[in-house]
Amino acid sequence: MATTADYTEKIPNNVDLHEDRRLQRALESWQPNFLNWWESMGPTLPTQDVYLRTAVNVGREGWANFGHVAMKDYRWGIFLAERDGDRRIGFGQHKGEPAWQKVPGEYRADLQRLIVIQGDTEPASVEQQRNLGATAPSLYDLRNLFQVNVEEGRHLWAMVYLLHAYFGREGREEAEELLHRNSGSDESPRILGAFNEETPDWLSFFMFTYFTDRDGKYQLGTLKESGFDPLSRTCEFMLKEEAHHMMVGTTGIDRIVERTVQLMKEHDTDDVTAHGAISLDVLQKYLNFHYSVSLDLFGSETSSNVANYYTAGLKGRWMEGRRKDDHRLTDDAFMVDALVEGSISQAEVAALTGLNTDLRREYVSDCQSGVNRWNRILSEAGLPQRLYLPSVAFNRKVGAFAGIEATPRGEMLDASEWDGRKGAWLPTEVDKTHVRSLMRPVHERGKIAGWIAPPRNGINGRSFDYEYVRL
């Protein structure tokens, strides 16, 4: 398999697509449908061209090529990480066997389902973010939005390739469906709840790329361990691109906190609303919402499905190779978050059924690192306020805590108390209206909106005032 992408092909790829004419024809007939979807459901802001990064190879030696590209001409393609001919399955009942190059018949339906769910999230986020260009706080941010969008489009291609190459007619039908479901649609919504929420403003966008794309990182990390080698290699390459999306979220929130702190000190006030910025309490509410919605994406605390995926070798744990156990888990126990006699607590379960909780905990500690960063900005400014992650029981719609209400500090509430107090913890209509009122576009080079600080560095060694987007 080629490491370098072949850009002479209609569909750039490093999987030697030209050697399988039937597959090539099938994907080339899907391509116009994808481009129609992009035109009708992708970014709405008209642009001439954008300073974008395009993958040129998947090796360790620099894989990105930067240049101004008209977005409709972006060369979406199919890239898998390099193949390790000696790779073995690292967990479950097939541990030690050679990784599968074809889909094992008994796992066909499960693998197809995992690929479809992952594939469905990719176009969903493009749909959620399609109107944001019209209110971008700077050309730098606008470019980052579009980079995220084209990469989500490429991640859709990654899953569609697997469906076409390995799952026959059913796979081709599923690939069509990925373009027919739409985020927030009443008739055919996206599969997972968080991907039907709207992303109406840039604060939501930064929270989404921080919290929800981070969920994507962990889901891809479990699929990277898969015994099905093409899926593993696909996800390994996608993880390189996912890192950029999370950087956009992390540094975006850094810059909002920074600007808020400047104005708090300048005007000696905690409430910077009147000064055209976002107060820390509103930031905390948005954080509470996006974090709790993203926790739901991990599913229930216990799951027999995930236990079966693990045992079958389809989906491993985060950093499976670093775990110091037998990688089979048949006799192990694990503590999961649970409601015990009406209290938020923990319960012991078989380790295999607790794998969703295992993954969620890895995610939670990773999320905390961003919160620590933002709190450092507050601390260095000499301010006492701190942001925090709410309790895992707060605002949950999936799993052990779906049937209860709890405060961000984890105190149980009855329904009427929750209704009376939730506006202190989740964005209210007043909060959303204020945030939206700040979303006035700044499309001039070197200029930036007043509610966010400029970035420390530009893209690829360019300065902040570079012409990242030509409108």
Automatic annotation (TrEMBL):
EC number: 1.14.13.208
GO terms assigned for molecular function: oxidoreductase activity
Matching PANTHER family: 1,2-PHENYLACETYL-COA EPOXIDASE, SUBUNIT C, PHENYLACETIC ACID DEGRADATION PROTEIN PAA
Keywords: Oxidoreductase
Record-level GO cellular component terms: cytosol
UniProt-listed GO biological process terms: phenylacetate catabolic process
Protein name (Swiss-Prot/TrEMBL): Benzoyl-CoA 2,3-epoxidase subunit BoxB
Domain of life per record: Bacteria
